[in-house]
Design brief:
The two termini are 25 Å apart. This protein has 559 residues and is α/β, with parallel strands linked by helices. Helix content is 44%, strand content 14%. It has 25 helices and 14 strands.
Amino acid sequence: MTLLSHGQALSQDQVVAAIYETMIRPEQFDRFTPGAQDGPGAAAARGAPQGRPRAVPFLQAHFARAAEIQEQQWQRAGRPHPGAYSGNCSRFWLLAEARADGGLLNASQRAARQLTGTVPLPAALGLTEAAAELWQSYLEDVRCGDFSWRDVLLLASRTPGEQFLCRPVRLSGADAPVAVMAERLEGGWTAEAAVPVAAALGLQEADFAALKDTADSAGGKVDGRLEQAAGEAGAPGPAELIRLAVFLMNERSRDLAVSRGEVLPPSGTFEDSAGRRSQYFRLGAETGQPVIFVHGMLDGIAPLQRLQPQLRTLGFRVYAPLRRGYGGSVPLKRGEDPADAFVRQLIALMAHENLQRPVLLCHRGGALYGFIAASRLDSRIAGLVAAASNCAISSPRQFSGLSGYAWLVAQAATRANWLLPVLMRGWAAALRWYGHKTLLRIQTRSGSKERARLSQLDLLQLLQQSQVLFQEQGGAGFMADVQMLRQGTRTGIPARVPRSVFVHGGEDHVAPLSVVREMLNGLPDARLCISQEAGALLFYNYPELVLTALQDLTSASDG
């Protein structure tokens, strides 16, 4: 199985993290409340239903451990009953009385802000008309005692991609009244996300049929099929399985949307020691080996962004700062050295996110920045991986394969730097004329296999996003990079750098392999990995080579 196909599956670490995330929540403390004889823990004790495969021991053990941790938290909190839970969390949940108007007993802060006033709960929740009727009917059933502790009711919302998970909750001891807990689940159903999630839980997509049927309608009680699926997956009950499955499907859907350029990854800002603001993006997993992506000149974070599912699966926690003059990162001041500014930016990001020995992953023109930063920061960096690096603009002959506006920009970069600001103002118009794939096409030769592969990739939305970031500061970042690359190796290649892997293509005519060999000559800790078929677009056409190099370097650093 290749790394790219492996990225279509979910990792065990991803599933385990989701189990603890969806199990250890204060609004679920009622599983420890006395009196619910067939409560959520009963299924695990009984084991899987007869005639069905036994639960996945690995997952079952983590569900059990999560429940132990949650019980410890419940005891430290003073063993509160559901009406006394703290609502200090970002999730949306509420506890309603089992009566016709469903009076509010408790709610998270997020829910409380939405439920103010005299608006009836179904309307305030945004339930559909049919779902509101199911809600009222279920409250009446609970009030009359016509329910099971293992009931799970899903209700449709008028907001796409939202539904509510409802279940009975005993307020205190065995003789206390019963209320109904409603939790908002965010994320719609897609087969594209459901298939890998089911496989990761040891299930088939068909095992989620009951969940899909309910999600596609006004709602209703989930049937026994989901109870059986919960037993197979090792979940304490159907509610726990639903929370986990919806969480993972939502996470998967977001990753796919990011990889296609439908949405940008989460972003933030930080300031360096001089108070200069920078923007950065967050990709990959929430935990794991930290990686800092050093982007190229033309396509920004696009080559990395399309690998979001694989980065999460492989457990890489990636940060992508935009160099000064790109996106929301303020431009360089007149006379400010680009390399010095980038090193300060890197130090500030590492402090802001508390990153310990990250790996630098560099692309194209970003490799020179990464090379210099790794040498200056030395032991604070675990290593460097450079994909299709281009560390110098040494001669106009490098751009002999270009044509039209792209050729003009390249010539200005090498011979007439003063023309660049004028040309940058026409860049957006040139892209509208040539198309956004021009950003990549100009780096390939006409009739080459690399250009043929490029035509098969759906990159339009990703490249459009990158160009918005590229032009946000009027091309100031690009012009600073041109200044840096014109200096090239004259900036001073250090005599020693941390462990480094340079992945390069034999068909790269913009940054020839011979130039890279010469640059790395005499650096004992730098390794060159060559793919004779790859060219300048190695990161797009052969991303598995980059991911493998990243894995290998990380493993060596750990050792």
